[in-house]
Please model this.
Amino acid sequence: MGDDLVGPQSTEVTETTEVTETTEVKDAPVTLALDAEGGDNAPGEIVAGALLAASSSLRVLLVGRPQVIEPHLAGDVSATARSHISVLASASVISSHDEPAAAVKTMHDASIVVGARSVADGLSQGFVSAGSTGAMLAAALLIVRRAGGIRRPAIVTLLPGVRGPVVFLDSGANAECRPEHLVEFAILGTAYSRTVIGKAGPRVGLLNIGVEEGKGNELAQAAHRLLERSGLNFVGNVEGTDLLADVADVVVTDGFTGNVALKAMEGCAGAVFSRVRDAAGTGVRSKVGGILLRPALRRMRAGYDPEEYGGTCLLGVRGLIVICHGNATRKAIANGLRFGAEALRKGVLAGVEAEVARITVPGDPAAS
Amino acid sequence: MGDDLVGPQSTEVTETTEVTETTEVKDAPVTLALDAEGGDNAPGEIVAGALLAASSSLRVLLVGRPQVIEPHLAGDVSATARSHISVLASASVISSHDEPAAAVKTMHDASIVVGARSVADGLSQGFVSAGSTGAMLAAALLIVRRAGGIRRPAIVTLLPGVRGPVVFLDSGANAECRPEHLVEFAILGTAYSRTVIGKAGPRVGLLNIGVEEGKGNELAQAAHRLLERSGLNFVGNVEGTDLLADVADVVVTDGFTGNVALKAMEGCAGAVFSRVRDAAGTGVRSKVGGILLRPALRRMRAGYDPEEYGGTCLLGVRGLIVICHGNATRKAIANGLRFGAEALRKGVLAGVEAEVARITVPGDPAAS
Model:
């Protein structure tokens, strides 16, 4: 079914449609819920982030205990920004020690639960939090609920590819996957790349341990076969070495491998930067070199900084869920809000719907 | 059983025993077979590598077609080095396009088969090749054969940790693993760390997507439980971010995840280095800084260069199998030979035997 739909549509037609939709949506203000009580720096930095990002086109619904939030909204703050922030009262906080699903089911007045409910009820179009990732995932699945045709929402991360961002998923929402789940990830990633990044026909790659077909574990081999006949623009296996190279616009893998690969890259980039710093601190010659090179290195490092790109989100539910690092500062929170608003304006949710309608996932009861 | 044996032995006793063994072995010359016909730069660079490394304590058995090898051993070469090289005739070459296991079974006169047989027959103690990794693995399993008590030999890679090398396995020999295989990897890694790196009681970590117990996919969760009661010095889960941090001396994972993580780090380090280079080429200030910093960066980069550390090997068979990059130059080959000889002199094979005797692998028929 999915294959039949691809043929008649030319790339241009698809592109034109998208551009029109984007323009229409652009003027509409976006409302995002923000968990004022999530993360190591809550509530001060979270509220400060809201004040940095809030505007007439980005309204913020600040979720938390009013007595905790209000002092940070008073005093010497921008009256304009303040006028675009509303407070949505919650009464408790889910900590990282709580069992996520159980907490979401029982703590009806927790900030993550209230924030997720605001999306489900249409008060907001998305929810941003630096709190417990596990609780955010549980709230997304149980309260915001899955988008039609998607059984496994996935965490999307943007990798700093050599020629622009690479859409990478799943970064850790689904530790155990079946082959058809990787096809769903490819659908979500394709929708994201089309709408948010603006690629007309994103190339989809499968993270694997060799480029040849037949490589990999059982999951990768089966996923390869399914992706080949999915109707997506599947370009084959992508090795870890090529994740940042310009060989695919979207790379899919299971949430275990994805999380390990992502964190391994983070750790490696951190180690290399430290060593560059160490190298620039040894000997007069290197020290002078390091000082001269510092601004350029700082600009470059920003590309690897989650505070800057802020683009980790859960895709595949009926709203946009933006997941910030636990140690997010006001800058990271503001970037998370801006990123979320931009993705929604560009039509990422409608993009997922369109891609689900276009591609048939094998093993989907609705398709057989 | 394994637990009982650990108790009475103090760390000092173990250490003393190891030091004595190492000293005894140190004087014995090592003979390594070298595949003269494997890799992109064969035979010229391979033979040149042999000439760089061969000495009275490192004899090289050069495997290949004599008419192909001999010209490179003649002419302007060191007579001393030449005198420590013998030629072992093979008649064909397994290419990367051949199906590895089938090729090893049928091409009895191929260089990889002849080299592996020299280990099995006691002509050499190890085999070095830059040829097909798949064929090397197949030859190791089918011809050199598994070490007693080891069902899944694994590829060991040394990661450039912030406080010295981290022993990482499996880097790709076993794409599909059961939990007990990860315990075998931990045994192999512990033996390697004790003997080659010289750690008395190496800390073993499990690569996972969170530090808490209960995290990860089914394989990681089950492996965690087995490692906890293995008698090894298991320190728990290690996240990708901490692979290069000093949290474990040995990190184990399945060969799929291991290969992806390793290559992701390689790709990321390469991308960061390129960007440092680009940053140092933009603007006069940065250019001067880059030139001054260059020697320090070059020294640092060597730590991430497979040509330099040359330490990827297959452990768990009755000999040492050193796997070089397909594009290995003479320097990489010479380092691979030196690394292999050093590991053998330090008693890595006896170390594996000792660790297998000390630790009981669950699910091992011999142990139940």
